Amino acid sequence: AAVSRRYVLCEVVSEDPWCRQCIEDRAVGFAIRDAIGRVHGDYGLACCSVSFTVKYLNAYTGVVLLRCRKDSYRLLCSALPFVRQLESRNQRYSCALNTLHVGGTIRTCQKFLIQYNRRQLLMLLQNCTNEEERWCVRKSLLSCSLTEEQPQSEDEEDDGSTE
């Protein structure tokens, strides 16, 4: 029987402009494991560590995709607000992790992220002050689409539930 997994889509929020460029998936994973240990103790850490991994990290946008077992995703999600800093290359950056979406497959998270980015761009469009800014945002909006259907890999097994 296949192991049911959950994918948690988050964004790194920080006042420090260098924070996003300097983060690495190892640093994010370490900070999350540390928060789980502080909030839920050894038991929670053991439950979450079984198949926990940072599947994707975009340092430019600050988007992070985490994978964990379905039976422990609530423990993981409840510890995310307690991540207060990331440490990378002996530098500490204060930040927070904002949970955007929890899905049953990577594909559902990708679809959510496209819609989320489209909404963010529409808000930017409404706040534009000149035509050049509007043109740049419209161009970005038009580029938000899924181009081709990818076959599902083992990591994307869908058990029908997207809590």
From TrEMBL:
Keyword rRNA processing listed: yes
One annotated GO molecular function: ribonuclease P RNA binding
Name any GO cellular component annotation: multimeric ribonuclease P complex
Q: Does the keyword Oxidoreductase apply?
A: no
| SUPFAM superfamilies the UniProt entry points to | Rnp2-like
Coiled-coil region: none
One Pfam family, short name:
RNase_P_Rpp14
**Location relative to the cell:** Nucleus, Nucleolus
Main subcellular location of this protein, as a coarse class: nucleus
Alphabetized, the UniProt keywords read: Nucleus, rRNA processing, tRNA processing
Q: Which GO terms describe its biological process?
A: rRNA processing; tRNA 5'-leader removal
Its biological purpose is as follows: Component of ribonuclease P, a protein complex that generates mature tRNA molecules by cleaving their 5'-ends. Also a component of the MRP ribonuclease complex, which cleaves pre-rRNA sequences.
Quaternary structure and partners: Component of nuclear RNase P and RNase MRP ribonucleoproteins. RNase P consists of a catalytic RNA moiety and 10 different protein chains; POP1, POP4, POP5, POP7, RPP14, RPP21, RPP25, RPP30, RPP38 and RPP40. Within the RNase P complex, POP1, POP7 and RPP25 form the 'finger' subcomplex, POP5, RPP14, RPP40 and homodimeric RPP30 form the 'palm' subcomplex, and RPP21, POP4 and RPP38 form the 'wrist' subcomplex. All subunits of the RNase P complex interact with the catalytic RNA. Several subunits of RNase P are also part of the RNase MRP complex.
Q: Which family does it belong to?
A: Belongs to the eukaryotic/archaeal RNase P protein component 2 family.
Q: What is this protein called?
A: Ribonuclease P/MRP protein subunit POP5
**Native source species:** Tricholaema leucomelas
